[in-house]
Structure formats: structure tokens, C-alpha cells
Fold this protein.
Amino acid sequence: MLHRLLLLLFSLLASFPLAAQDRPRAALAPLGSLDVTTAQQVILFNRLQDRLSTRYDLVSQSDFASAQDEVFTSLTAEECTEENCIRLIQELLQVEDYFHLQLVRSGQDTQLTLTAVDLDKRQVRSDYCESCDQRELNQRLDTLITSLLPQVENDLQAEMEQDLERQAAESRQQQEEKALQTLRELAQLLQRSAAQAGTAINRYRADDSTNRFTSFFEKQDPKLLYQLGEVYRRGQGLDSNRIEAFRWHSKAAERNHAPSQSMLGYLYRNGIGTAENATQAASWYQRASDQNYALAQFNLGSLYRKGYGVPQNEARARALYRQAAKNGNPQARKVLNWLAEQ
């Protein structure tokens, strides 16, 4: 008998990893049951495995079955007391901790008994569940586990917190995607109908406690920023807001959008949404004029003719008017005709 036990012990040891384990090894006996459905047995046994695995490296069920068979065939009925058999299984499997779950069903009621045996003691916890569904049985089993192994409760709490954090992250991601979809729809609406977009934007920003609106539109095409600036300047679908108008035209102008540069010159020239600044007006008109934007060429010509923000220069003014007229500005043609009559 000793020879057979030693052979099994050596074979099991050979299958163990040589590297030290971060967690202690433990053995989980097959579930014992009476009048309990196979489905419930599987669910509860898997749950017990899952919970114990947070603290232990459980030996495989096949290794446990081999050790159990060897013990049963090597010991007589008188020798194989529960205490002796468990101790030998622990020795063969080289584990200090042994667990066993028993389920007994009587009518609609179920008794759960969890036994834990280590080298020093044997502990048993039982619970009686009346008319319990599977969810309640799961909860009763968790209670038994944590009463035997308080450290598992910490693991379960950590697992619950991780689940909650994961759910919160998923919820935040869903909310973010929903908000982004709404902003995409606002951007599309802005290209179709300024008034409708203004109304929708006003409603969205009233409920938006984040900076999501600004972050989204700052990344959009400058043409769209120009349209947004005009919605605020003209008060299309919302109250006119000169500061917001100046803000969005500035962002588009800084990205070299000629119409926005020209509009920014106009806003500086007239002190709309910012302090009046003739020098800045001339500067932005010049940047748009360099891109052959006719309206900016006309307005810059007027500044040179009047000497506002730039030195007065009639020749420079006429040259800018001619450029504007050539690029299709009708007002420039009228002014050139008027100047010719003087």
C-alpha cells in the first residue's frame, strides 16, 4: 500500500510547476448532493471554484479524483475514516487546505454545508434556505465562504468594486458616444439651417455642464466655425451673443479661413464682442486680402483711404479697390466710379 501511495505522490509532484506559486494550493472535493438538480449543482460548484480561486491555486478535478481513488483502494473501510482520507488526500496532493460542499434538498428547501480542513483544524458552516431561487442560493453560498475565509470577503468586495467601476466606465463611454452623436447632428444641422441649429445649440448648451461642446467644435472645419460664429452674431435661433461670435470667428480666422479673417477685421473695426482696435482690424483684413478675398480688400482699401489703423494712402486704397472689383465685389466698382468723378 505504501509503495502505491509513494508512486502516486511522485507522479503528482512531477506535474506541479517548479516555480513558486503566488497563492497557496488547495483541493476542492467534488460536490456532494441529495435531490438537487444537476444544473444547480454545476452552478454552485462553479461559483465555489470561482470564489476560492481568488485566494488559492486549486488542483485540477482529475488530480483530485486520482488521489481519491488511490486512497480508497489503498485503505480498508475501517482505516478510511473521513479524517484519515482527507489527510491522505492532502498529503498526496501536497495541499494544506481542503474544501467540500454538500447540498441537500427537501421539498422546496435546501441545506448548504461547506467544510474547510487545514493542517490545524476542521471548520463546518451550514445554512438552511427556504424556497430559495438560484440567486438566493448563490448569495447563501457566498456568506458561507466569507464566514470561513474572511479574506475572501475582501476579494469579493474588490471584485464588486471592479465590476462597478467597469460598469461606470461603460456607462460613461455610452454617455460620451451619445453626446458626440448629438454634436455630430448639430454640426450637420448647422450646415442646413442656421436658425434651427441655433435653437438646438441653445438647448444643448443649457443642459451641458461639461466643456464637450467647445472641445468638439474646435476640431471641426473652419467653415463650420464661421457658420457658428454667424449664428451667434446674428442671433439665429438664439439670443445674439457678440462674445461667442467673436470667439468662434477668431478660432476660424486663426486657421487661415479668409471669410473669418475678414469678419474678425470687421468685429475689431466696430468693437463687436471685443474692444475696438483699428490696428487689429487692418491686420486681419490684410491676411484675408492676401488670399484674394474681395470683401476684405474693399474694407482694407477704405481703411487706407481714411487712414484708420494704417497710414492714409490714397494710391494704396485705389489699388485695393481695383483688386476687390476684379474679384467680384460690386461695392468696390461703385467707389472706383465715384472716385473717378471727383
